[in-house]
Amino acid sequence: MSALMSALFSPLSLGAVALPNRIVIPPMCQYSADQGHATDWHLMHMGSMTQSGAGLFIIEATAVEPAGRISPLDLGLWSDETEASLRRVLDAIRPHGHARIGIQLAHAGRKASTAAPWQGGAQVGPEAGGWLPQAPSALPFRDGDVTPQALDAAGLQRVKQAFVESALRAHRLGIEVVEVHAAHGYLLHSFLSPLSNQRTDAFGGDLAGRMRFPLEVVEAVRQALPAGVAVGARLSGTDWVPGGWDLDQSVVFSQALRERGCDFIDVSSGGLSPLQKIPLAPGYQLPFAEAIRREVGLPVIGTGLITEPEFAEAAVAEGRADLVGVARAMLYNPRWPWHAAARLGARVHAPPQYWRSQPAGLADLFITERG
User: Fold this and answer.
1) Which residue stretches of 265-357 are H helix?
2) Cβ–Cβ < 8 Å for 350, 340
């Protein structure tokens, strides 16, 4: 297969942002920040990811306010100080990588104030550095969790403005793609799902009411940023729980996002309820991506246990997704795009310091122009 024949390694634009290929490194929380500030771990991790040959690297879920962190170790972008810490990282890695850089802006909602996964992931109380989570309704994520505070009108306005301010900070940092997190049971997703939103005001009830606040947030972010910045949203295609959020509602929500100027949809699933039952298999979320792509007409990132280059190639070539998110496989093999290019007969960007690593018989693997 030649480079011109590889769908995975063909270029694509998200809005005004041109990507060299269809490989996306989606947001993956590192739980390594210091009071929201990026650390040397982020410098090392993000430097590796952006040198990998992927077309787009999206920085992990980044909290728009301290109460919006999943854990006390989450990255944030809510102050001049957190902005400066991320600038240090970006200034260091940009000269050495070819991946376009995006960021996922997030608020954890009722799933906030938990320990890192390797520390057990349980809720962290105020006595241990935690805080009271916030949500659309006073419904805890799981039995035994503290009851979250239901956001009032002032709280909704504060959160929406926090998303806007963080988006403007991202733009000042030169970030080209902003993804609003409305998946995995976090705040915006919990407004969408009838399982977690039992409000009786304009932000609850029927589908239009439950979509209202997430759409207001995305619209405000889109309006705050110039056209040269691509804006998209990540959503869960289904809650995997009867009576919850599902694909039909996801299609309607995605159509509304398109109408408000979104440039792409990043399709995941689940995360809202401990009762979820997910049939895990390679590409298990691609049917949601394919349906949204067909019904909405926006570029769609498909994800879900995609580890093999040939599988990723077929997903793009067959129109199941426009781009493919490769997450955990990138952590295991940070040069996954190099190996994918080699197996698919394509070419890929690599740092000049590594050009001499090309194996015998693959002398044309690396693109040696700096453009």
Assistant:
1) 286-296, 309-317, 328-332, 336-344
2) no
| Rounded CA separation 264/303 (Å) | 14
pLDDT value of residue 107? 98
In this structure, what DSSP letter does residue 146 have? P
User: pLDDT of 55-112, one tens digit each?
Assistant: 999 999 999 999 999 999 999 999 999 999 999 999 999 999 999 999 999 999 999 9
Give this prediction's pTM.
Answer: 0.96
Query: How far is it, in rounded angstroms, from Cα 348 to Cα 370?
Result: 12
Report domain 3-341's class. Answer: alpha beta
Chain center to CA of 174? 18
Angle, nearest 10°, between helix axes 80-93 and 40-50? 40
What residue type is assigned to position 16 of the chain? A
C-alpha 368, offset from chain centre: 30
Separation between Cα atoms, residue 336 and residue 263, nearest integer Å: 26
For tokens 């109408």, name the residue: 259
Count the Cβ atoms, other than its own, within 10 Å of residue 206. 8
How big is the chain by its Cα radius of gyration, in Å?
20
Neighbours of 118 (CB within 10 A): 7
Locate the domains of the chain by residue range.
3-341
Q: Is 112 left (phi over 0), alpha (psi -120 to 50) or beta?
A: beta
Tokens of 353: 């310091």
Q: Quick one: which of 132, 150, 115, 147 has its CA closest to 67? A: 132
Task: Report pLDDT digits (tens) over 137-181.
Answer: 999 999 989 999 999 999 999 999 999 999 999 999 999 999 999
Give the separation between CA 224 and CA 243, rounded to whole angstroms.
Answer: 35
Is 31 catalytic? The answer is no
How would you class 259 by CB atoms within 10 Å of its CB: exposed for 0-12, middle for 13-18, buried for 19 or more? exposed
* Rounded Cα–Cα distance for residues 304 and 320 (Å): 12
CA 302 – CA 265 distance, rounded (Å): 9
Catalytic residue among 31, 186, 284, 354: 186
pLDDT at 1 over 50: no
Pairwise CA distance, residues 104 & 61, whole Å: 5
